[in-house]
Amino acid sequence: MEPFIDTTSVHGKFIFTMFSAVAQLERDIIVERTLAGRESARRRGAIIGRKRGLGEEAKKKQYLLKPIIAINISSFQLLRS
């Protein structure tokens, strides 16, 4: 497969640099819009992110795993048995 851009020539390096700059600009625009959207949502009162704390099912699992963790059994050993 032949490379799209010949980076050994001056013109190839220039084109590669221009593509890189455009890609970085696009990335920065995405970040800027995402931050603006999150700020707008916060001002409207939306809660962003996952809920704090564990759900009931996770609390049950945590309760069941405490004795196993206390006697220092690795998850690999637990799954093997």
Note poorly predicted spans.
none
Radius of gyration: 26 Å
The largest β sheet comes out as:
none
Mean pLDDT over the full residue set: 82
Number of helices: 3
Tally of distinct domains: 1
Let me know the number of strands: 0
Structural class: mainly alpha
In whole angstroms, the N-to-C terminal distance is 50 Å
Order of helices and strands: HHH
Beta content comes to: under 5%
Portion of residues within helices: 55-70%
Could you say which overall geometry the principal axes of the C-alpha atoms support? Answer: flat
Overview of the structural elements:
68% of the residues lie in helices and 0% in strands. With 81 residues, the protein is an all-alpha fold. The chain has one domain (10-80). The chain starts with 9 loop residues before the first helix and ends with a helix. 0% of the residues are buried. The model has no long low-confidence stretch (mean pLDDT 82).
Give the topology.
Blueprint: H1 10-43, H2 56-70, H3 75-80
